[in-house]
């Protein structure tokens, strides 16, 4: 998987909230946010993803994607 640095993630989270993202990108951002203390201080991950999910609901079928992101996030966090 592509590794992102914090600046890339911060830019990506913005895109995240404003437009659709490719699933691979989404996965890379999710993985970084779940593992990076610095980003965790900037973003409440649950809030970020709740926003993503809310926006996604207007544009089916991405709510399914948001659900998968949340699941992936839990998986990543469970491994720590
Ligand atoms: Zn980071």
Characterise the protein shown here:
With 80 residues, this protein is mostly helical. The protein has one domain. Helix 2 runs parallel beside helix 5. The chain starts with 5 loop residues before the first helix and ends with a helix. The chain binds zinc ion.
What is the rounded Rg?
A: 12 Å
Number of domains: 1
Shape: globular
Number of helices: 5
Structural class: mainly alpha
Key words describing this protein structure:
80 residues; mainly alpha; 5 helices; globular; binds zinc ion
Brief rundown of the structure:
By secondary structure, the chain is an all-alpha fold.
Task: Give the topology.
Elements: H1 6-18, H2 23-35, H3 37-42, H4 45-58, H5 62-79
This protein binds zinc ion.
């Amino acid at each position: 998987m592509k590794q992102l640095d914090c600046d890339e993630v911060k830019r990506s989270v913005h895109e995240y909230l404003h437009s659709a993202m490719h699933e691979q990108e989404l996965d890379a951002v999710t993985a970084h946010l779940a593992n990076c203390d610095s980003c965790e201080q900037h973003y409440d991950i649950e809030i970020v993803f709740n926003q993503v999910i809310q926006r996604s609901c207007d544009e089916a079928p991405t709510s399914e994607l948001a659900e998968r992101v949340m699941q992936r996030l839990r998986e990543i966090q469970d491994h720590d």
